[in-house]
Write the structure tokens for this entry.
Amino acid sequence: DLFTPILLILVVLSGFLVEGARISIAQPSFERWSFGGWAIASLFTGLSDTTRLILHRYLWWVHISLASLFIGLIPYLKLSHFLYAPLSIFTSSLEPKGHLPMIEDIEEQEVFGAPTIKDLTYKDLIDADACVRCGRCQEVCPAYNSGKPLSPKKFIQDLKLEMNTLSRVRKNNNGLEEIVGHTIQADELWACTTCFACQEFCPIFIEHIPKIVELRRSEVLNVSRFPEELNLTFKNLETNYNPWGIGFADRDKWAEGLDIKRFEKPGDAEYLLFVGCMGSYDDRAIKAMRALVSILKKAGIDFAILGTEELCCGDSARRLGNEYLYQILTMENIEKFNERNITKIITACPHGYNTLKNEYSKFGFKGEICHHTQIITEAIKDGNINIGHKNSPTIVYHDSCYLGRYNNIYNEPREIIKRATGSNPFEPKNTRRSSFCCGAGGGRMWMEETIGSRINEVRFDELMGCGTDVIAVSCPFCLTMLNDGKKAKAPDSDIEIMDIAEIVERAIS
Ligand code: SF4
Ligand code: SF4
């Protein structure tokens, strides 16, 4: 570590000596302004002109050699970050934050994702070189902070180790090792919730999540090596288009008695309400979905659902690395949207919102996607629903990663809470872009969490610490995860965990 500063000091020192020798020979009066060189020149005044000339020539060569050595070594020194960091920023993705690269012509591919370092992109390799090891990503990582073996900083450094192996392997002409199981272990890879906190806070725009997903793709699609419980999740998504494997014919059971139109042909409604798997099958999320339906009706919004025709949006499958399954689900959903000429979609799930808005377009779907907090805010502002605030509870708001960090929707939920209760929501310590994940993203919802503390419990504790009557969320995954956190950490507490739609419904009635 001392080599770089010592070399830099030698370059600067030799530069001053050359300058001093030059000034001592020519002695132009204006060089007085060159304080360092002028002072050093006085050291040479006792020498003859010839000696000074020879000395100047030698010092010049020493200085040029040291400076050339320094420049030549930059790629191998810590200073290389001065080169790679701007390169990393310059090559960062211009796609929306929530977009993952698609595998084109997936049927024709023989190798998926990145089994070895040479399968990563140039941007990935630049990132590995550019990391300045500042640790900001690690500080905000929910996996790291809950005792999992994953550190996003170490993950990037491990890729750098793989790169060093690459140059050795090229020299020895040996085969490359697979990354997973070599420098990066399975427990690290599968601990990521794809919460985006690491990328949000990395000062040089290093992109951790696409690399993690590339490794997962390789594990799932090349070698079928993934946490055992995902076998069932993938099978359920393939056969019943939802992660639990509940019959697809029951997908619209949640809507019984609500008299909701089905979107069967073009023009049936202005909006499609894309319910999502949680809103269709999860008991707690169904209550929130029914509240949303009641609000949409009161606001006079013309909407319909696909009912049993709707399929999982594919978000979990994609982030778990099963791109093949994701593409099947996506293409089938898009076919249904296009058959019905659907161009406006409302969803209450930030994961569905993100993939429909930022990823379906790559598969040919163009439409306006609204999160329910946006539609409700508009309805309140337009005076289509009136909400009062009698006996309002105190509320702390939890930002969902896929709504906040990924899609910058921070203000609408807060605006709704303010209108519903008459006061701004409480803000927890980790809020807005620093929000702490609930633990469900990246397909973690469908995996066991056996190492360290449970992320949902860590987050619940923080929110509970705000001392409010209600924890408000705008995501069905957060709703379920925080409810589970409450069951584990404060089963007797009166604190309620509510979706924004439920808060509004209560404020209307
Ligand atoms: S925040 Fe970025 S630069 Fe800093 S350690 Fe993490 S990846 Fe490296
Ligand atoms: S996306 Fe979230 S969980 Fe994954 S490495 Fe980054 S900070 Fe950690």
